[in-house]
Amino acid sequence: MYQTNESSTIFINDIQLNESHLTYLLFFPLDLVRRYTLHYNTEEMMMTHNILLMLIVNCLIALFISYISTRYLVKPLNDIIQNIVSLSKGHYLKPNQKPSLYREVEDRITDLSQQLQVAQYERQQMDTVREEWIANISHDIKTPLTSIRGNAEIMADMSYEMDLISRQKSAQTIIEKSDYIKNLVDDLNLSTRLKNKEFILNKKQVNLVSLLRHVIIEIMNDPKYENYNIQFSYDNEYIPLMLDELLMRRVFTNLMMNAITHNEESVLISIDIKDHTITLKDNGVGVCEEDLLHIFKRYYRGTNTKKPNVGSGLGLAIAYDIVKLHEGIISASSTRGNGLTITITL
């Protein structure tokens, strides 16, 4: 308790000290003591307290949600970005079976990785085949060039006596070898243009039967192939189709020459036309399963060629590209020792 007088303020209180009851008095000058009265509303204080508590709880919840989103939303996105970066550097991904919010996206990236890996393997295989093909082509060009040079040097050597027949044989050899190199270069040029889709088809209505008949006659009139047996059958004398005649002539020539190149003279080559489907079949040595997988690929040469320096390894690839350019279908079937069958549907 306290009380005031004219000059001071007195504070009085009781205390218990060592079992003694004491009373103390404190005197303060009147001008040094102030009295303040504080009024407060309990409900308002509780409301303020609750608001502060809610703010704290909301902050904690926000931090928790941020942690969850970082762990389950942002982190998988970062992983996806890292996977894409790895792909760009040629590091392929392995399938991941862990649960993920972005499972579908990750599966698509994994599929893309596997496709790129397969494409790289096929590209490496093609590079290997191309290198082997270039080596073979280099040999194929070098061999006739050597023959051309040798015969030309003999003909140019005035000290070397040649009769007319020998001179004609040397000249004929030069012509044949030059034609071979020319055909080889033409194949390369045509294959490149077809691959780069630089061809514009010059289509016109062509009788398919007449076209094939002319190709067969042209081949059989060559003395080198006069002993081969080619059978030709069809169900209709007139089968009109819109074709690029020159290109399709090249297709059928390549297919027949392929049958001749890879077989002995005793081979029987059968050509049959039914409606818009052409079937070319031989009873020769056939093609093994490995060769059959690559038979229409560029730069690929079969393993059963009987004649040296014949074929560029582009003939069937050119035929395939021309048929596809006509929106046709070409396929091959064979077993080793049972001949080869090639079917074209236009």
From TrEMBL:
This is histidine kinase. Its main location: membrane. SUPFAM superfamilies: ATPase domain of HSP90 chaperone/DNA topoisomerase II/histidine kinase, Homodimeric domain of signal transducing histidine kinase. Signal peptide: none annotated. It is found in: Cell membrane. The keyword Repeat does not apply. The keyword Methyltransferase does not apply. Keywords: ATP-binding, Cell membrane, Kinase, Membrane, Nucleotide-binding, Phosphoprotein, Transferase, Transmembrane, Transmembrane helix, Two-component regulatory system. Coiled coil: none annotated. InterPro entries: HATPase_C_sf, HATPase_dom, His_kinase_dom, HisK_dim/P_dom, HisK_dim/P_sf, HssS/ArlS-like, Sig_transdc_His_kin-like_C. One of its GO terms (cellular component) is plasma membrane. It is a multi-pass membrane protein. It catalyses: ATP + protein L-histidine = ADP + protein N-phospho-L-histidine. SMART domains: HATPase_c (SM00387), HisKA (SM00388). Its EC number is 2.7.13.3.
